[in-house]
Amino acid sequence: MDIAPLPDIYRHAPFAQDCAPRRLLRLFSGKWTTMIVHTLHLCGGASRPGQLQRALPGLSKKMMTQTLRDLERMGLVDRNIMQVMPPVVEYRLTALGQRFVEPLEMLYRWGAQHAALLDQVDRNIAAAPAPAPARDAS
Any idea where the HTH hxlR-type domain is (predicted)? Predict the structure, then answer.
């Protein structure tokens, strides 16, 4: 895999709080954020809440709603209420949200191709003693 070199500004620490890498990681730091974007993509860019929840076992309705609202606030997802009886809600990736699909899919592909590495990380975590509580240095 060819990886384009990073701009010089990102080759040395410290990273500014508003630098692109930190902003990107903050954008997708929620547990379900990337999974919902990925699932919407798999559903052709749009899905109803029930379909999303069935596709993502373990995702509670409360967490799904919160994550969808966050994605909507970021401008990555639109919430559409269809004027039928009873009303139907559909979530759709915006043009901006669709721009994030390719890098997420690359990350997902890497994870699938390197599942053994992820398994090793899980084993390391399971075998490691729990960290001691942090002490207040003040």
Answer: 19-119
Q: What is the CATH number of the domain that holds 69?
A: 1.10.10.10
135 pLDDT above the threshold of 90: no
Asked if the peptide bond before residue 86 counts as cis, ω within 30 degrees of 0, the response is yes
pTM, whole model, 2 decimals?
Answer: 0.80
Residue type, 30: G
Token pair of 69 as six digits: 């609202």
